[in-house]
Amino acid sequence: MLEALITSKTRIKLLLKFFLNSSNRDYLRGLESEFGDSTNSIRIELNKLEAAGLLESNNSGNKKIFNANIKHPLFPEINSILMKFTGLDQLFTRVINQLGDLNEVYLIGDLGRGIDSELIDLVFVGNVNRDFLNVLIEKAEKHIKKKIRYVLFSIDEFKEKKHLIITDKDLLLWKNDTVVV
Q1: Residue 98 has what DSSP assignment?
Q2: Do residues 147 and 102 both lie within one domain?
Q3: Quick one: 106 and 170 in the same domain?
């Protein structure tokens, strides 16, 4: 769907990287190794997105670090389009909003880092009926046509193990009845 609107695969990768998880920051060589694209094609797209005001940059030593400009008026709309593209919008509608006693939901793995993936990795924190969650996950997978893999923790268990599970690249999607992204 998105490929029909945006013909540059590199631009799509950059939008996913920076606009799906707005806390992502990276530099040209880091993006080159992550994407497997040439530095020239990545540089061209970074420059276009920065000139449009969609990306910001700052220098750290000899590296130019890029991140999303969350103050840009199109940021919410681009984020919304990417949520639909990845199926995360349906995850809220079909799973998260129906679970009840849920404290937090994290998106981890490739998609949490802004890399398109057919696998959605989630961490649920709360007191949730696992059987009901499995039914909701199965229905959502059929609708979004992606595999959903998850782990479920109680609040106390998660407090103990959070530092082992969640990295600074992972994305907090939902917290106490509030969509975070």
Answers
A1: G
A2: yes
A3: yes
Strands 147-153 and 119-126: parallel
Contact residues for 176 (Cβ-Cβ < 8 A; gap 6+): 103, 104
HSE toward the beta carbon, residue 5, CA cutoff 13 A: 8
Tokens of 8: 């540059």
pTM over 0.70: yes
Dihedral sign, Cα of residue 74, residue 166, residue 123, residue 31: positive
Contact 35, 10 (CB under 8 A): yes
Which tens digits make up the pLDDT trace of 42-68? Answer: 999 999 999 999 999 999 999 999 999
Report residue 10 CA to chain centroid gap: 17
The model's pLDDT over 164-175, given as tens digits with 9 standing for 90+, comes to 999 888 888 888
Query: Which amino acid belongs to residue 17?
Result: K
Q: SS3 for 161?
A: helix
- Cα distances (Å, whole numbers) of residue 70 to 26, 78, 95, 115: 15, 10, 27, 19
Number of domains in the chain: 2
CATH of residue 63: 1.10.10.10
Identify the CA nearest to 81 among candidates 4, 150, 133.
4
The tokens for 169 are 């690249």
